[in-house]
Amino acid sequence: MKKQNVSDAVIRRLPRYYRYLQDLHLKGTVRISSSILGEKMGITASQIRQDLSCFGEFGQQGYGYNVEELRAEIGHILGVDESHRVIVVGAGNLGRALIHNFRFPDAGFLLEAAFDVSPDLVGRELAGVPVLDMSELERFVAAHRPDVAVLTVPQAVAQRTADRLIDLGIRGFWNFTNVELTSSVPNVRFEDVHFADSLLTLSYRITER
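Above: the chain's sequence. Below: its structure in token form.
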């Protein structure tokens, strides 16, 4: 059972736990202690135990964690088994790269369609995903009820496009536009991806004295 008011820091560590446990499971590891898992991830064992305690009791003293069970539990917490429906809005270079290379099903998402305004793209399929004209957006959303929109549109139309999607009932946005999107509509969630932030963080670390 989830506890209320779980911190954003804890939430952001959960995908890392899931990824490491997935790798361990694929390698055939059956169980692992919090101390060994912490060593692999660069996190203290007490931090791992504290994070997991936000969602219930996991593991056994003297045994550790069953890798497959813990992976499944964290996956459930993250909603991997919810089969969220997703669309990509903007099928330019970045949108196409995500469609071709990102494994949406591994994260529990079903990629159903992409949208663009370019005549060179509309009507094509990218990795089996149909590219539809933006004029078809309302009809498609009404029929398929996607949960999430991946936004890779130009900055100049980012907020306007998000507002249009919110009006259609979409509440989750994976935002690659490099614009901080906002909404006054309750329960709308933006996950902003800023590549420059990550690169500048690296810059700091390699120049730190």
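The first strand starts at residue 31 and ends at 32.
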